[in-house]
From TrEMBL:
Pfam families: FilR1_middle, HVO_A0261_N. Residues 163-291 form the Methanogenesis regulatory protein FilR1 middle domain. This is Transcriptional regulator. Residues 47-130 form the HVO-A0261-like N-terminal domain. SUPFAM superfamilies: Winged helix' DNA-binding domain (SSF46785). Transmembrane segments: none annotated.
Length: 303
């Protein structure tokens, strides 16, 4: 089931507060499905033609967000004619988005807010488009991750002639990291991939949260090595009855994996080093870990 707003609020209230930026993003995510209702209640929806005009003027708004410009500089920056730059600035002026100071057009406070929101809209639309393979691979009930931290993410998708491309990207990041934490609906990498499990068992300080039957399968495949890695403190395994998708936290990056429901193969892996993504991932991992169980609580799994 999809967590409702109250469920998410209760879950988040149990976690340490994040940075103001993360808290604002999370609040927007909690409220996004209710924005239309709130706007209807306010009784003052913006005309769709105006919204379209604002987006069409995004390039000049972005240019002026960087610094005030005169008309010639606008023409050069946007590679437009004098008539077009005049039309742009006239439209912005009529709506109170710009003011002219010392021969240059500069954004008003209102104009600056509008410019930032247009850029945010463009970034989120672009990110949603780029992350389509992941969105398609993740169950609709669990699409609770937020897009903004992944604007500049590396997206690796399985291809017909290279079906293991996402797994290879994931394993490469594991090999570059001294620590690794994560949770997953299936094995982080195919059990036949011995090099990955050697790294996890012998070289990387690892904590993984799996579904119970995945842990059982891991011990069936590597009974001695898995037990030895746990005893040495290299590997910590925990279990949870339900997991949303695959989340990986490396030393310097975080990633999300989406899997084919039939084959269990990783279809897409999205990773980034953005600090806000790290903060979001740490928060999600802490929430999932808090609802998981240690192997000591389920001794039958490792007999």
């Amino acid at each position: 089931m999809v967590p409702d707003q109250d469920d998410r609020s209760d879950r988040d209230s149990r976690l340490p507060p994040g940075s103001p930026v993360l808290e604002a993003i999370l609040e927007n995510e909690r409220n996004r499905r209710y924005l239309g209702q709130r706007l209807d209640a306010a009784g003052d929806r913006i005309d769709t033609d105006l919204l379209g005009d604002i987006v069409r003027h995004g390039p000049v708004l972005e240019a002026l967000l960087s610094e005030p410009l005169d008309r010639r500089e606008i023409e050069a920056r946007l590679d437009v004619s004098r008539a077009t730059s005049h039309r742009y600035t006239q439209w912005l002026d009529e709506r109170g988005f710009v003011e002219k100071v010392d021969g240059r057009f500069q954004l008003t406070w209102r104009g600056a807010v509008i410019a930032e929101e247009v850029l945010r809209f463009e970034a989120n639309v672009r990110t949603a488009h780029r992350m389509t393979p992941l969105l398609d691979a993740v169950c609709e009930d669990h699409r609770d991750f937020i897009l903004e931290p992944f604007v500049d993410a590396t997206i690796t998708v399985a291809e017909p002639d290279d079906p293991y491309k996402p797994v290879e990207r994931f394993v490469a990041l594991v090999n570059e990291s001294e620590t690794f934490r994560g949770f997953n609906t299936t094995h982080m990498a195919p059990l036949v991939l011995g090099e990955f499990h050697r790294r996890v068992f012998d070289e990387t300080d690892t904590e993984i949260i799996y579904l119970p039957h995945i842990v059982e399968k891991l011990f069936e495949t590597y009974p001695e090595r898995a037990r030895e890695a746990i005893d040495r403190g290299h590997l910590t395994l925990r279990t949870r009855e339900d997991l949303p998708y695959g989340l990986a936290l490396f030393d310097d990056r975080v990633g999300i994996g989406g899997y084919d429901e039939t084959t269990g193969l990783m279809q897409v892996f999205v990773d980034t080093d953005a600090p806000i993504a790290r903060e979001w991932a740490e928060r999600v991992y802490a929430s999932v870990r808090a609802d998981s169980k240690s192997l000591e609580e389920q001794s039958a799994l490792i007999r």
